[in-house]
Every structure is written in C-alpha cells, then in structure tokens.
C-alpha cells in the first residue's frame, strides 16, 4: 500500500492524458471539484443517465481527498449526542442511516475488480485516553438499539492486549467499518465515473459563474460550459467566483507520515489489523505495506510543507507506543479539509439549480459518498432528503481571525486531552498501588492469625482481663423497676 503514498509522481504519471476543457460544452450537470464528493456525484449521476462534466483546477484528488488514511465508518464530525440535541432524535437517526449508506457506497465500489490494489481491510477501533467505562455503556446501547449499528465495547485489558501501551483505556470496536488505500480510491472513483460516461477536465479552473436562468454559464480560461445544474464540490478551494461560500469553511490541514519498515516487532506492539483512532481526534494510525506504520496526528490552520511535520509524527509515535522506540518517518503527506462552524457537512441547494457539497471535515470518506448519492438523486429523482441538512446553515468561519481561533482551540483541545489522559493514568496507578497495599496487608493479617501475636519490641504485653463470675442458673431474674414502660403489675 505504501507505494500509493511514496510515489506520487508515478501515480500522477498514470494521468498524463489529462484533458483540459478547450471547447464549448453543454451538460445536464456541471460539478466543480474532482475530489471525493465531486467524483461521487459524477459517478452516481452518470449511472442514472445524466450528462456530467467535472471541472478541476488542478488534478484529480490533489488535496485532502487524495491524502487521507482511507478509514470508512458511519457518523459525522459532530458527536452523536450533540446531533440529537440539535435536530431531535428521529432526524438524527435518519442522518445516521444516510451516513451508513455512504459507507456502503464506498464498500460496493472499493473492490479489487473495480480498483486493483485497493487493499481493503476490516475493522476500526476507537480508543479512549481516559477511563470512560460508564459513558461507554450508554453509548453502546444507543448505537446498538437506537441507531442499528454493530459495535462492541472493549474493556481496558482487551484494548491493551492488542495495543501495547498504557495510554488507552476502553474502546469501541466497529467490525463493519473498514479502510482502503485512500489515493487509489479517489483515482479509482475517477475511473469509474469516466467509464459511466462522465467527462472530467483537469487543469481547468473556473473563472466565473452565472447561475441565473435555467441554463447556468461557467467560464474557464479556455472555454465555456452551460449546464442546468451546478454542484460546488470544491471545498475551500472554490476561488474568487465563490469566495463567500469558501469562507464559511475553516481550513484545517492534517498531516500524516509513514515509517520505514519496522519488522515483526510492530505486530507484537500493534496486534490490531484495522485502523485505530482516539476519541479526541488527535491520533489516527494503522499498519500498511506489511510492517510500516501510517500515522496521522499534527493539525494546523495554515498550509505548510508536510515534511516539516515529520518530527512531530515521530515524537507522537514514541509518546503513544514507546515500545517501538525511535522510528524513522520516510514519507509525509497532507491536505486541507474544510470544517464548518457547526461540525456538519454543507449539503443542499443554495438556489434553483445551484448545489453545494463540502465541509466534510475528518469524516470525509462516508459523508462525501453520502452527499454525492443524495445530490445526484435529488437532481434526477427529486429526492428531498437533503433538506435534513437545512438546520445546519452556512455560517461565516471568521476569516483570518477564525483560523487563529481555530488553531488556539486545537492546541487547547490537545492540551486538555493530554492532561485528562495523564490524570486518568495517575488515578489508575494509584488504584493499582492501593490494591497492592491492601493485598500485602491482608497477607500479613493471615500470617499473623496462624499463631499468638507478639507485641512489638519494647512494648509490655497488657494483662488479660479477669473473667467475669458465671451467673448461677438458680438465681431468679431481677424484677423490673416500677418506672419501666410496658410492664403490667
């Protein structure tokens, strides 16, 4: 799997036949952005019989869509309990069901037949860095009974049996979640869309959009395109024509690294075969290419060269899995995700014929697939389920001030998580010491009970009290006093 991350130029070499839009074109649907969401819309709409053109300013999957760990599971960036508080139980359950459909869309397409080398593997383990047993039980019940999601609760011992570290406590195991080679998936999705009839034009930035009238007009540097529907799936990179929409997203860059081969010791320390992520969203890792570790951790609100964060990834691995020692990080990659203020994706119709699909945050694999299906079916079938996202309006993300605030919140969140984890581990060690102390005391008491106790040196033994004289059986009981209540005379 690692070749997909280390040999980017080879991957791009396979797409030297990129087509730039250089002629006038009419289509039913124009999708702006060839990432996960845009390509899913193109694939689904083409399968349903529409003519689709995708305009991409650079190349397929150039940003976050082609630079992610490929973990696929249900849910959203917004925690489920907060989602229920925001829109109510029934609508939250429907949105959760749609997110599961998105995950199944990925599973159905990410096969070796469709995408050779996709390297799909099963199982995702979400671990907690604090002792959250009570909260775990209620969460499992809700997921199992109310949201029809197969999950297992793992006790601390079981988590530490597969992850040799004391940093993690309880876990939630999703047996039907899975992971794929992220870069192969986005390029495989483009291949499926092309075969279904969609036309993908790369190196074709959008200069302007006129979304008035029935037929919308899109201008590129070398040609024009007309379409009945336009779908904005460019995330934070929609550019000048739609800058106000881009500014409703907070750009967050996530960086990941791949270690040099670690040999068999990595399997001794990480016996879990799927993806591992912590419940605070700080660390996300899995084994790839047999014995290498792929690890995502640093997060910033500004762009930087991925190689700059190799040291941060290496230190994070050493902190969480000290038994691995100092590892060498040989490859780095990263991309920007757009995060909304409310934590939910932006999915829906802005005005007649103008649609948006962006803001997927960390849960991009399943939610982008869900959005693609939903918008294609809304356009061609009149499916109205996109209205479930109406409560999550477009909110300005604060511009440069928002980025600074986002970075500070991220730093505070990671510091709080680290402090909570340290406190949990301190309490655990204290409980262990108390149990050991109680066990020693109990053993000492048992040993003392086998013979007469000897006083400590220098302490005079206290004489035993004289025995009380036995009461003669013939003595009559003394007569109660006259003031006792309840005695008849």
Give a quick summary of the entry.
Residues 426-489 are annotated as: Disordered. Strands 3, 4, 5, 6, 11, 12, 13, 14 and 15 form a 9-stranded mixed sheet that branches. Strands 1, 2, 7, 8, 9, 10, 16 and 17 form an 8-stranded mixed sheet that branches.
According to CATH, the homologous superfamily of the largest domain is FAD/NAD(P)-binding domain
Structural class: alpha/beta
The name CATH uses for the topology of the largest domain is FAD/NAD(P)-binding domain
How many strands, what sense, and barrel or not for the largest sheet? 9 strands, mixed
Distance between the termini: 100 Å
Number of domain units: 2
Q: Are there runs of 5+ residues with pLDDT below 50, and where?
A: 1-16, 396-412, 468-489
Task: Write down the oligomeric state.
Answer: single chain
């Amino acid at each position: 799997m690692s070749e997909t991350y280390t040999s980017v130029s080879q991957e791009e070499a396979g797409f030297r036949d990129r087509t730039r839009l250089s002629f006038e074109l009419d289509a039913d649907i124009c999708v702006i952005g060839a990432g996960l969401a845009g390509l899913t819309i193109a694939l689904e709409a083409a399968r349903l019989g529409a003519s689709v053109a995708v305009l991409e300013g650079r190349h397929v999957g150039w940003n976050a869509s082609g630079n992610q760990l490929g973990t696929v599971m249900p849910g959203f960036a917004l925690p489920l309990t907060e989602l229920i508080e925001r829109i109510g139980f029934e609508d939250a359950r429907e949105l959760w069901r749609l997110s599961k459909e998105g995950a199944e869309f990925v599973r159905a397409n990410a096969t070796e037949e469709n995408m050779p080398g996709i390297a799909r593997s099963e199982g995702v383990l979400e671990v907690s860095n604090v002792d959250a047993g009570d909260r775990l039980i209620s969460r499992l019940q809700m997921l199992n009974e109310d949201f029809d999601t197969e999950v297992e609760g793992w006790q601390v011992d079981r988590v530490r049996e597969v992850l040799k570290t004391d940093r993690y406590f309880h876990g939630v195991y999703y047996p039907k979640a899975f992971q794929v080679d992220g870069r192969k998936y986005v390029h495989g999705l483009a291949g499926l869309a092309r075969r279904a009839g969609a036309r993908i034009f790369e190196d074709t930035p959008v200069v302007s959009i006129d979304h008035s009238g029935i037929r919308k007009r899109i201008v590129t540097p070398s040609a024009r395109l007309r379409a009945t529907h336009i779908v904005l799936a460019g995330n934070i990179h929609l550019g000048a024509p739609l800058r106000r929409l881009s500014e409703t997203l907070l750009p967050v860059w996530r960086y990941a690294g791949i270690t040099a081969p670690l040999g068999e010791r990595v399997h001794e320390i990480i016996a879990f075969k799927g993806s591992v992520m912590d419940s605070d969203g700080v660390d996300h890792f899995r084994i790839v290419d047999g014995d290498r570790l792929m690890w995502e951790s640093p997060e910033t609100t500004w762009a930087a060269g991925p190689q700059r964060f190799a040291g941060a990834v290496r230190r994070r691995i050493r902190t969480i899995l000290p038994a691995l020692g100092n590892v060498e990080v040989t490859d780095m990659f990263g991309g920007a995700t757009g995060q909304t203020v409310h934590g939910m994706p932006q999915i829906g119709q802005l005005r007649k014929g103008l649609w948006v699909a962006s803001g997927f945050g960390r849960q991009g694999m399943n939610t982008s697939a869900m959005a693609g299906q939903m918008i294609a079916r809304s356009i061609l079938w009149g499916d109205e389920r996109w209205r479930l996202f109406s409560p999550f309006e477009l909110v300005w993300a604060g511009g440069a001030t928002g980025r600074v605030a986002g970075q500070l919140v991220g730093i505070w969140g990671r510091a709080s998580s680290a402090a909570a984890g340290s406190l949990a581990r301190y309490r655990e060690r204290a409980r262990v010491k108390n149990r050991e102390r109680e066990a020693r005391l109990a053993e000492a008491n048992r040993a003392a009970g086998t013979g007469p106790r000897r006083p400590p040196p220098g302490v005079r033994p206290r004489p035993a009290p004289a025995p009380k004289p036995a009461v003669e059986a013939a003595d009559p009981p003394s007569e109660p006093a006259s003031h006792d209540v309840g005695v008849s005379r």
